[in-house]
């Protein structure tokens, strides 16, 4: 691997880690952990997320390197996914050591490794491109087939342990797997447009991040919401609340901000935590930063949007 390719893998991973941290610290985020709240969680706070995100960064870089290497010798997408799975399990083990056994970023690891690998591949293309739609489509190409097989296998299992697996068997809700299989429609159709629209209106990073969160919450089939109470109405309720927040102007109006403050209390009372939307939010920010900087140095120099919020 050349020095330039090493630099690219580092920059991709740095932007991904920045995005995971930006998601975690931003507020108000009903039910989620932030810099000012532990949301619906009694077992983790923002410092748990800081430790977890920094532990995961080397695995994001390793995934980007796998993508860069794959783009050269074409090891084949099934082999690449198998290597990412092994990396994902090691990253999860590292996360659990860093958090004392708490699941902060299981979904963020899964999504981030696949997207970092896809971004590694596109970075080696003729244009060195980092177009979000190209990266998301490629990510779906890497993981789609094995994930569709996982869903088929779930229907044959007698003992389903994971929430996502149960949701698929009971209601055919595909959750995180569906997002990847379909090439991240929630990000491309909702998350990225709302994030960029907020930034273009002059919003600071925190405001744009939270506006994007509500945009994602309004459409995502987030099976995390089923962890505490396996009732699919929790998904539709969360989507309806997010839509209402957007209709009232999101963080851009006093009415929207007042409604969101009420949601924070309501989600804690109902023990709702939209962790899946939080994962997709982090991925949205990373795709935006990659596109802004075409895989070059992202966080090492003042960014138009990041320094805007400083
Ligand atoms: C492929 C897997 C990730 C699938 O895992 P699983 O079968 O367990 O599926 P789910 O339970 O449905 O989802 C797992 C996590 O994925 C996030 N998520 C859920 N829905 C979506 C969605 N629609 N879009 C995107 N992401 C989604 C979510 O993760 C986040 O929430 C977790 C924190 O919330 P919390 O409520 O605290 O969760 P818990 O602590 O578990 O509950 P409590 O104890 O607090 O009550 C955190 O993980 C966030 O990231 C879901 O939790 C899995 O099979 C897998 O990882 N496989 C191995 C690795 C692999 O295959 N890698 C391939 C390439 S890397
Ligand atoms: N900020 C956050 N709070 C709770 N769960 C999460 N999963 C991902 N980000 C999260």
Automatic annotation (TrEMBL):
It is an enzyme of class 2 (transferase). Transmembrane segments: none annotated. The keyword Transcription does not apply. It holds the Pfam family CitG. It catalyses: 3'-dephospho-CoA + ATP = 2'-(5''-triphospho-alpha-D-ribosyl)-3'-dephospho-CoA + adenine. GO terms for molecular function: glycosyltransferase activity; triphosphoribosyl-dephospho-CoA synthase activity. The lineage of its organism: Bacteria, Bacillati, Bacillota, Bacilli, Bacillales. It comes from the Bacteria. Its EC number is 2.4.2.52. This is triphosphoribosyl-dephospho-CoA synthase. PANTHER family: 2-(5''-TRIPHOSPHORIBOSYL)-3'-DEPHOSPHOCOENZYME-A SYNTHASE, TRIPHOSPHORIBOSYL-DEPHOSPHO-COA SYNTHASE. Keywords: ATP-binding, Glycosyltransferase, Nucleotide-binding, Transferase. The keyword Translocase does not apply. InterPro entries: CitG.
């Amino acid at each position: 691997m050349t020095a330039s390719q090493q630099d690219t893998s580092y920059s991709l991973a740095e932007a991904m880690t920045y995005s995971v941290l930006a998601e975690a610290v931003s507020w108000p985020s009903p039910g989620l952990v932030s810099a000012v709240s532990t949301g619906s969680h009694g077992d983790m706070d923002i410092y748990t997320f800081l430790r977890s995100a920094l532990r995961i960064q080397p695995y994001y870089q390793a995934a980007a390197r796998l993508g860069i290497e794959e783009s050269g010798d074409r090891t084949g997408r099934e082999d690449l996914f198998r290597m990412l799975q092994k990396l994902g399990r090691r990253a999860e083990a590292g996360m659990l050591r860093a958090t004392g056994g708490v699941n902060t970023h299981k979904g963020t690891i899964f999504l981030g490794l696949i997207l970092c690998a896809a971004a590694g591949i596109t970075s080696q293309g003729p244009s060195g491109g980092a177009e979000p739609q190209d990266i998301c489509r490629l990510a779906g190409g890497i993981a789609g087939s094995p994930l569709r097989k996982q869903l088929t296998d779930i229907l044959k299992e007698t003992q389903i342990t994971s929430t996502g697996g149960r949701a698929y068997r009971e209601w055919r809700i595909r959750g995180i797997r569906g997002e990847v299989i379909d090439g991240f429609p929630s990000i491309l159709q909702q998350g990225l447009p709302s994030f960029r629209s907020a930034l273009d209106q002059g919003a600071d990073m925190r405001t744009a991040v939270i506006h994007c969160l509500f945009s994602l919450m309004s459409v995502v089939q987030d099976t995390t919401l089923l962890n505490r109470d396996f009732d699919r109405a929790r998904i539709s309720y969360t989507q309806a609340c997010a839509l209402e927040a957007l209709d009232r102007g999101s963080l851009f109006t006093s009415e929207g901000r007042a409604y969101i403050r009420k949601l924070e209390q309501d989600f804690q009372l109902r023990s709702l935590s939209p962790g899946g939307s939080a994962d997709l939010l982090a991925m949205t920010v990373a795709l935006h930063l990659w596109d802004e900087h075409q895989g070059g140095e992202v966080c090492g120099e003042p960014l138009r949007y990041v320094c805007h919020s400083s």
